[in-house]
């Protein structure tokens, strides 16, 4: 069990992710409860990067339902195919949105959100079980680098 995040200041985002990954693995290794693990992943990512909103939506029947998160109050239910989260679910693939105003059907939970990345996670049968959604108040915040590491992190949710 990790009691506190050990992060060296002034590292590149890649270096921060590389330091975070084994610490998240360690956090999750002692715990099998999905909600507990999503809560701690949200807290770790928020501590490390401080983006506007970091959290999970879980597939419940034909909707995504809000799960553990860090940040302002958010929409509670998102239909399949709607917004960035619902689209990532439908496509079963990560979506990086450099400018949310250019994404048709973007769901504006917060007017401060300018760019985002949504990463699905999968159940044992390979179906999308939910998504990790990270929103930034800056344009063009996320890249293939974030996608690479966040997909490694969400793959730990089993
Ligand atoms: N931005 C998301 C909605 C969820 S909130 O921003 C937390 C979307 O369009 O899917």
Explain what you see.
With 158 residues, the protein is α+β, with helices and mostly antiparallel strands. The chain has a domain of 105 residues: GAF domain (Beta-Lactamase, 2-Layer Sandwich). It contains four helices and six strands. Strands 3-2-1-6-5-4 form a six-stranded antiparallel β-sheet, sandwiched between helices. Strand 5 and strand 6 form a beta hairpin. It is globular. The protein starts with 12 loop residues before the first helix and ends with a helix. The mean pLDDT is 93. The structure holds methionine sulfoxide (SME).
Derived structural class: alpha+beta
Count of individual beta strands: 6
Count of discrete alpha- or pi-helical segments spanning 4 or more residues: 4
Beta strand %:
15-25%
Highlighted features:
158 residues, single chain, globular, Beta-Lactamase
Present the secondary structure layout.
Elements (H helix, E strand, L loop, with lengths): L12 H17 L4 H16 L3 E8 L2 E8 L6 E3 L3 H9 L3 E3 L17 E8 L5 E9 L7 H11 L4
Antiparallel strand pairs: 1-2, 1-6, 2-3, 4-5, 5-6
Helix pairs in contact: 1-2, 1-4
Bound molecules: methionine sulfoxide.
The site of methionine sulfoxide (SME) has 14 residues, from α3 and β6.
What's this model, at a glance?
With 158 residues, this protein is α+β, with helices and mostly antiparallel strands. The protein contains four helices and six strands.
């Amino acid at each position: 069990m990790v009691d506190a995040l050990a992060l060296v200041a002034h590292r590149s985002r890649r270096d921060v992710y590389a330091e975070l990954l084994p610490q998240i693995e360690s956090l999750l290794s002692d715990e099998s409860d999905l909600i507990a693990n999503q809560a701690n992943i949200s807290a770790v990512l928020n501590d490390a990067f401080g983006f506007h909103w970091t959290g999970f939506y879980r597939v419940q029947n034909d909707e995504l339902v809000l799960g553990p998160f860090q940040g302002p109050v958010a929409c509670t239910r998102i239909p399949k195919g709607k917004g960035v989260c619902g689209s990532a679910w439908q496509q079963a693939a990560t979506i990086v949105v450099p400018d949310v105003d250019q994404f048709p059907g973007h769901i504006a939970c917060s007017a401060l959100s300018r760019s985002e990345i949504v990463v699905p996670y999968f159940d044992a049968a390979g179906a999308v079980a939910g998504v990790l959604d990270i929103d930034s108040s800056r344009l063009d915040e996320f890249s293939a680098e974030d996608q690479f590491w966040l997909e490694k992190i969400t793959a730990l949710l089993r």
